[in-house]
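can u do me a favor
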């Protein structure tokens, strides 16, 4: 931010803290590698003074390249980039910066101050933009509110800078992620490591590498295949494994009480009909109370508001802490923000596009359940295909992953594999496609890992 004054408001900054951060790196001469303590949280754009930002950018790039960060190397690179016109000017600046840093070990404290001041400046600028948006005569209230919530959410989540970003910072994050992944790969005995949230279903995870951030995952099936049960099983599995993640389920079709009843049935291995009739044997009550205790402690949140749209869902999700996964049941019952005058294809296209944007904006996997057309019922081979997705080709286009559930025994009552369910990964933007076999316990509306003869 170049102006020291913004419409009569002094933009917050702490020049001393900025100088101290840079001075710590210069004074350290890579003996302790203090830059590594802050580089994952401190970016060049966090600095208020352009000179400080430029110097830090050079430091970060050299650090990424594995170069020893001593004053001579840093200043030489700064001169090459035209940050300083002469060696004398560079040396003078470095000395002043080092004098500003009494202790290199305090770099994390200085960096925290720099980031906090940046966030306050960002909030002021966002507030100004929100005022302009809300004041526009043509502005719609819902859209203005969504814009305001998004700006504040972005600041809180550290994603407020949506402008062009130099590749160096992105490269560093990618290398850091790969390094962490490689360490996990080694610890795992050379076996692939899932980057995303583990669904709890081994063969499904092997295909899609878990549910990954910013992905839109479509789970589709004909009625009766168990897509709601599968989604709920995944929600419970993830909630058990990742206790610090909030799992949000939006049920547009069923009441929250019905969903929880299904969860209890699956967890307690209680026949689903018992939840409806009350016919429960005495020996089952212990399992039921244990299941209720386990479920009540999971970080799962359920919303059964009928006919909700992407904007209202997004507004609720922005208030959640440590959001890990979003499940929406189901696409066909969602409403669009705009009036498409009965054009269902246009409406679904808008919804899927907005869902993908939401997944990217919130940086979480979003799983959306969808129905299939009746086309599969008319074919001899009733396995679903991408062309069976109902109402719009944009579903396939916008989705990162498309999975179909299919149980042949649903159609062929004489099938020997009544517990076999095929999860067909028909589209996978970042990996392979193919079938994953899972088990289906219809009595408990529960999917399980199971080995089937013949692979």
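np, heres the sequence
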């Amino acid at each position: 931010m170049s102006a020291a004054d913004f419409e009569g408001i002094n933009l917050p900054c702490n020049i001393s803290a900025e100088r101290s951060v840079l001075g710590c790196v210069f004074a350290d001469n890579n003996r302790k590698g203090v830059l590594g303590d802050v580089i994952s949280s401190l970016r060049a754009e966090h600095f208020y003074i352009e000179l400080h930002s430029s110097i830090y950018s050079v430091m970060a790039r050299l650090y990424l390249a594995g170069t020893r960060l001593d004053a001579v190397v840093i200043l030489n690179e700064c001169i090459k980039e035209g940050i300083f016109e002469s060696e004398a000017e560079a040396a003078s600046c470095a000395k002043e910066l080092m004098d500003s840093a009494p202790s290199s070990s305090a770099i994390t404290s200085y960096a925290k101050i720099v980031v906090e001041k940046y966030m306050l400046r960002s909030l002021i600028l966002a507030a100004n933009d929100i005022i302009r948006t809300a004041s526009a005569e043509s502005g719609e209230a819902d859209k203005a509110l969504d814009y305001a919530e998004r700006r504040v959410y972005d600041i809180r989540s550290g994603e407020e800078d949506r402008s062009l970003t130099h590749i160096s910072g992105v490269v560093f994050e990618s290398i850091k992620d790969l390094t962490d992944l490689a360490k996990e790969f080694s610890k795992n005995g050379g076996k692939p490591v899932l980057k995303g949230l583990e669904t709890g279903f081994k063969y499904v995870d092997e295909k899609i590498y878990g549910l990954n951030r910013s992905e839109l995952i479509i789970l589709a099936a004909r009625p009766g295949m168990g897509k709601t049960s599968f989604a709920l099983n995944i929600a419970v599995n993830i909630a058990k494994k990742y206790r610090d993640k909030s799992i949000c389920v939006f049920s547009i079709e069923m009441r929250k009480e019905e969903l929880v009843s299904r969860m209890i049935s699956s967890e307690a291995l209680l026949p689903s009909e018992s939840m409806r009739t009350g016919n429960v044997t005495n020996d089952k009550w212990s399992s039921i109370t244990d299941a209720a205790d386990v479920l009540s402690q999971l970080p799962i949140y359920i919303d059964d508001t009928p006919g909700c749209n992407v904007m209202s869902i997004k507004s609720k999700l922005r208030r959640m802490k440590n959001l890990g996964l979003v499940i929406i049941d189901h696409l066909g019952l969602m409403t669009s923000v705009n009036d498409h005058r009965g054009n269902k294809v246009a409406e679904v296209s808008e919804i899927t596009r907005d869902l993908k944007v939401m997944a990217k904006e919130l940086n979480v996997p979003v799983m959306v359940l969808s129905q299939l057309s009746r086309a599969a019922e008319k074919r001899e081979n009733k396995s679903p295909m991408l062309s069976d997705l109902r109402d719009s080709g944009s579903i396939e286009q916008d989705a990162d992953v498309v999975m179909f559930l299919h149980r042949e025994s649903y159609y062929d009552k004489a099938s020997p594999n009544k517990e076999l369910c095929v999860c067909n990964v028909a589209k996978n933007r970042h990996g392979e496609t193919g079938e994953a076999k899972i088990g289906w316990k219809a009595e408990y509306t529960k999917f399980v890992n199971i080995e089937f003869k013949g692979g």
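The first strand starts at residue 5 and ends at 6. hope that helps!!
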